[in-house]
Amino acid sequence: MSRNCSIVLHAHVPWVWHPEVPHCLEEDWLHSTLVETHLPLLETLFRLREEGVPFRLTLDLSPTLLAMLRDRVLRRRTLSYLDRTLRLCRDEVERGDITGMRELAVRYEERLHRLRSLYVDVCQCDLLRAWADLRDSGHLELTASAATHGLLPLLMRVPESVQAQIRAGIRQYVQCFGRMPRGFWLPECAYAPALGPILSREGIDWTLVEEHALTTSPQTSEAFPFNPGVTADGLHIFGRDHASSSEVWNADEGFPGDERYRDFFRDIGLEAPMEYLGEYLGESGQRQFTGIKYYRLARTDDRSETYDPELASRAVEEHSVRFVASRGAQLAALEAEGVENPLVVCAFDADLFGHWWYEGVEFLEQVFRRTAQRGDFAFTTPGAYLAANKDRAFPSAAPVSSSWGEGGYFETWTSEENNWIHEEIQQRSEQLARFVRLFEENRSGIDEEAVKHRERAIRLMTKELLLAQSSDWAFLMKNEASRHYAERRTREHLDRFDRLRSVATREDDGGVFDEIEESDPSFADLPWNLYEPYV
Predict the structure, then answer these.
(1) Is the pTM for the entire model greater than 0.90?
(2) In CATH, what is the architecture of 4-408?
(3) What region does 347 belong to: left with phi over 0, alpha with psi -120 to 50, or beta?
(4) In this prediction, what percent of the chain has a pLDDT beyond 70?
(5) Which distant-in-sequence residues (6+ apart) come within 8 Å of 512 by Cβ?
């Protein structure tokens, strides 16, 4: 028997592309996660591979993130973000004699120089190539996901919407990585029984759900969630182990809450004088996180304690030892209970590591190193696990509707603040599905130019509807600070859809097609038939 653990990271940023301004807060969502999570993680994984430390990791790069990583404008802007932050670091080093933070400022400056060199000299500003390199060496499994992070169970009333999200997401993956994916990340880990047949039909072998989706199903097994189940359609379903994931993730008791770690919210971008930050913030003058933080979570006499990297490293050591020991004991107990080849799956948002939890990437490195030293279990990926157990008959599974949102179902995306969007999206999904069906039925009687015109209209309507369906907008509407932007983006895409539909059958679109294509380059080459009738 073998004992395995799997870490699955989900990396996602909604499509944000604003070339009309030199830089903006929403684009910095992308740049900050690349600089604080992706580059440190690549640096660590390359080092582990070079030193021969055995590890395997699963990574989902959402299709919107893939599209932004391919975009030349955004690649240049990531470099500009690095340089802008480096200039701020240089200012902080010079100001350090006054603030008393010179040593930390020097650390930040040295680290950013190192990450800039990795981005430019090693990766050549192409992180997709870097991730593919780790895949090709057998250290990484990359998965596909829904095109714009749509919450698929809430789109199922018009199944063509789900079909389009899945097909467009797989297509983006193939364009980036040159092969079909085996695994598929469900946005927000949101599952509904009707999704299984669609994923199987599109060639997906496995997906991941929350533990309770398997264990509360009438068709459950004592081996869940530590063995995958198989649906009637042949889709392998892995369960995210709540206990092991919560050891890291839990807001109250998880490792990142240790007072020795760096405080995410004590950032100079929120605290330094506005006149000092003027060049960094640019024309907007809007305060934002810079990544330069000098305090740890501990507070004494209502004052924050200065961040101590050595103290934080000791916390990483303690927590990595505890995590690895816990997984070893957990797997040994499962094996003793008769679970064959147990697998513990821990799934997280990727930006927990490095971005939200500054020491998180160091934690992952120590976990991989200590696991290799112990030797009582190994890290694998869901795809590698299935390959190693290809002759096994896994138990049948019929997971129930669920997500990893608050409450375990869909309440986060159906609240008072955001529930209005679902009827709007459903209405337009029905309109598009009907338009495509009628076009397919009648295209033989339409001249060639009219056919091209309508196919172009359908492609553009499909893109705008996909972008409106992103679960990010509903989530951000619950946050007062981001609500206006999320509502504006949703209405913007719905309005564009309506404009396109109004000219879809006219001989002359009045320049609407060109205007909308030029305003947003995302998903520019979608096939026109993603919304073909679902049967």
Answers:
(1) yes
(2) Alpha-Beta Barrel (3.20)
(3) beta
(4) 100
(5) 499, 500, 503
